[in-house]
Amino acid sequence: MKNRIPQEAGKPRTYIIRGQGVMLDRDLAQLYGVSMDIFNARVRRHIKRFPEDFMFQLTEDEIEYLKRQEPALSQLKLSENPCVFAEAGLLMLSSVLKTKKAVQVSIGIIRALFKRLYVNNRL
After folding, report:
1. How far apart are CA 5 and CA 119, in angstroms?
2. Whole-structure pTM value
3. Residue 51 contacts by C-beta under 8 Å, 6 or more apart in sequence?
4. In this structure, what are the phi and psi dihedrals at residue 15, rounded to the nearest 5 degrees?
5. pLDDT tens, 9-50?
6. Is 45 exposed, middle or buried (0-12, 13-18, 19+ CB in 10 A)?
7. Residue in 93, 105, 85 with CA at minimum distance from that of residue 31
């Protein structure tokens, strides 16, 4: 499985679900430095910015798949309706979460995307 977003040790993992590299909402809230309550409120307030290819809610089967992939997740209590975000959703999160950390994350994502495009000779 090739990760879509560069990862460092101890950083949130990227998973492949529905053919997309995605990250869990709970990991992203931590990455962006906000509580889950604030994270969920901002996403709900700007839900039109998150079409299904940016963000989607996991099914029970997908949650079980993740727990089998990542044993540590089976010990955690995932929210009843966890959502995952693709790369475009991560960029959109940076526009709705107004923290210094969100700006840093956005810059990192853009750099990673352009580096990947450059390496693949797409630019």
Report:
1. 14
2. 0.77
3. none
4. -120, 155
5. 345 688 899 999 999 998 899 888 899 999 999 999 999 999
6. exposed
7. 105
